[in-house]
Amino acid sequence: MKAYEFPTQLTAEGKIELPNQILQHLSQNQQLKVIIMVSEDSESDEAWHRLASEQLLKGYSEEDAIYDTI
Prior knowledge:
By secondary structure, the protein is α+β, with helices and mostly antiparallel strands. The chain has one domain. It has two helices and two strands; from the N terminus they run βααβ.
């Protein structure tokens, strides 16, 4: 499994924009799992990374949990 972290926004049509850097790593019609995390003003980047490592990637081995920040 690979996990990509990137900033994005919701379009007026209600769609999530994927950066071209991410699209280059994906095959057409590839099935994805998406977790949406919404930032609150008081949260820092450190808190986000801690949450991801402690909760979202819990149970995966290091070999399975490749975490790329784009």
